[in-house]
Amino acid sequence: MGEQVMVDWSARLGSGREFVARTATADRVADVLRTRIIEGLFPPGTRLSEEAIGQVLGVSRNTLREAFRLLCHERLAVHELNRGVFVRVLSADDVVDLYRLRRLIEGAAVRAAGQCPPGALDAVRAAVSDGEHAAARELWREAGTADLRFHQALAGLLGSPRIDELMRGVLAELRLVFHVMPSRQRFHQAYLARNREICELLEAGNVPAAERALTVYLDDAERELVSAYRERDVGAESMGEAGKALSR
Amino acid sequence: MGEQVMVDWSARLGSGREFVARTATADRVADVLRTRIIEGLFPPGTRLSEEAIGQVLGVSRNTLREAFRLLCHERLAVHELNRGVFVRVLSADDVVDLYRLRRLIEGAAVRAAGQCPPGALDAVRAAVSDGEHAAARELWREAGTADLRFHQALAGLLGSPRIDELMRGVLAELRLVFHVMPSRQRFHQAYLARNREICELLEAGNVPAAERALTVYLDDAERELVSAYRERDVGAESMGEAGKALSR
DNA sequence: GATGGTAGCATTGTTGAACAATCCGACAAG
DNA sequence: CTTGTCGGATTGTTCAACAATGCTACCATC
Fold first, then answer.
1. SS (H, E, C) A87-134
2. Which of A30, A144, A157, B121 could form a disulfide with A70 if both were Cys (CB 3.0 to 4.6 A apart)?
3. What is the DSSP string of B114-181?
4. Contacting residues of B for A14, CB less than 8 Å apart
5. Residues A222-230: contacts with CB under 8 Å, at least 24 apart
6. CB distance A10–B246 less than 8 Å?
7. Model confidence at B88: pLDDT above 50
């Protein structure tokens, strides 16, 4: 008899558990570094010195190394033995692969939007209008994050925790790509209108049209990024090709 | 003049780079623990003691902790603050989520098999016959790994490094699920014939039929695993429900 | 008998120092 | 211009120490 209420308690208390349970320092350090990397304070290629960062953040080298491992596992950094960890610098191939994943995930999400419960699109709609408001006030940084949150919400339609985290990782990697591009503010702004279009098509239940719009969106974005890479590469042909190949 | 041959050298040497570069001990430790976990030597729920394992493997606690972080990030273990790390014990919800991911990945892979270059199905075909040979000789362990390799090869048709690694993680988690099931040998064996069917349909270019067969395959497997969980859960209701819920 | 406190022990969290191994740049020699 | 070589700087790894936390058993109280 009392059984039911106890289960009820535990279910509601469980949601607050991650609040009471403080996180380990290594996790917090990883969080800090992750945001620093994503926000561009550490440009791709930057070396993350154990001693320097450890001193600034006030943590020991051992703890810091645990955090580095996590970042490397998330592909935000790379670990070269006896040389240290560096902020990841992505190649054009990486961009292609990332958009392959996006097509897979977001495409499935749009197709699944048909049999979603009402209210599932709330987060999507909110991200769209947030982006527009930010753009109207010329807050380009906010507009960019809103753009990414739109696609995160899109992936969320699948209702899968693993896909949510996968998408988080994909978008984090993508932000690394954006930093290579000049003026990423304009880049995001150009796509805000398309976000609204996709959102409205979904609300109207027109899944095929939404899927087509999404495909065009992703194809255009990928093309733009890859061509930006091509231009940048021909501009940096000062170093010998052989040395470049060996350095990877 | 000599430029061309140098580029040639570097391209071929680059493939051997990961051979010469020894891996760090933390990575090797993580490898060992990973195989121990997925082979079932450490059953789900087992606590991984820092001192005990560190002593056996001859590594220091700090190095071991780096390895633990990796395993937690791969979802093969969970880290509870001030309590240690435990081999992950998956819930029925996890099974559902994992099969959602499998449907997404493998479904896309089968659909992409149409425009794959000839020879792309070689790995798939090899996994199928390996599994049959192993089953014929009643090597159930080998048959099980061949089954998983079949699906890994299927995902490989997408030609995406990230999806390959994602699939590796998904299958590793699933092996954790299999250990909960009694007699996982029989489980895999029953699906070997379906693997051949899917493979032959793909070789014949009949993509829609292959996709249907795959869907049935995944639905059946998921149903079987989830029902096994349900049975196990009602059998283990000796412990209070509230306590069980809070322990997560 | 059930609840609540408390002391002790084992384990984890984190740090700092230490030493070996490795990389990198500079500089000299052919 | 290439090839050794040397020294400084950084990473790889271990060890020892201490604080913080969790667990268990025991005891007291109602």
1. ECCCCHHHHHHHHHHHHHHHHHHHHHCCCCCCCCCHHHHHHHHHHHHH
2. A30
3. TTPPTTTTHHHHHHHHHHHHHHHTT-HHHHHHHHHHHHHHHHHTT--HHHHHHHHHHHHHHHHHHHHS
4. 245-246, 248
5. A222/A95, A222/A96, A222/A99, A224/A187, A225/A95, A225/A177, A225/A181, A226/A92, A226/A95, A226/A96, A228/A180, A228/A181, A228/A182, A229/A91, A229/A92, A229/A95, A229/A180, A230/A92
6. yes
7. yes
The separation, in Å, between residue A88 CA and nucleotide C26 C1' comes to 29
Cα distances (angstroms) measured from residue B157 to each of A72, B150, B192 = 26, 11, 19
Task: Inspect the interface and report whether the beta carbons of A98 and B11 lie closer than 8 Å.
Answer: no
Q: Which nucleotide is nearest to A23 (CA to C1')?
A: C13
List, in order, residues 6 or more apart from A76 with CB less than 8 Å away. A34, A37, A38, A87, A88, A172, A173, A176
pLDDT tens digits, residue range B181-207?
777 667 787 889 999 999 999 999 999
What confidence tens digit (pLDDT) does each residue in A11-23 have?
Answer: 554 455 455 667 8
DSSP designation for B40 = T
Mean pLDDT, rounded, of chain A: 87
Chain B residues in contact with A10 (beta carbon < 8 A): 241-242, 245-246
Report the distance separating Cα B194 and Cα B216, nearest Å: 10
The alpha carbon of B18 is separated from its chain's Cα centroid by a whole number of angstroms, namely 23
Nearest CA in chain B to A14: B246
Say how far apart CA A123 and CA A152 lie, in whole Å: 9
The answer for residues whose C-beta is within 8 angstroms of residue B120's C-beta and 6 or more apart is: B113, B157
Contact residues, B window 5-34, toward A, CB-based 8 Å cutoff: 6-7, 9-11, 13-14, 21-24, 26
CB A63 within 8 A of CB B121: no
Nearest CA in chain A to B84: A24
Q: For residues A138-161, b (16+ Cβ closer than 10 Å) or e, as one string?
A: eebebbbbbbbbbbbbbbbbbbbe
DSSP lists the bridge partners of residue B106 as: none
Is residue B55 less than 8 Å (CB to CB) from chain A?
A: no
pLDDT value, residue A232: 78
Q: Is the CB of A26 under 7 A from strand C?
A: yes
Q: Is A122 exposed, middle or buried (0-12, 13-18, 19+ CB in 10 A)?
A: exposed
Which of chain C's bases lie under 7 Å from a protein CB? 11-18, 21-24
The nucleotide minimizing the C1' distance to residue B53's CA is C11
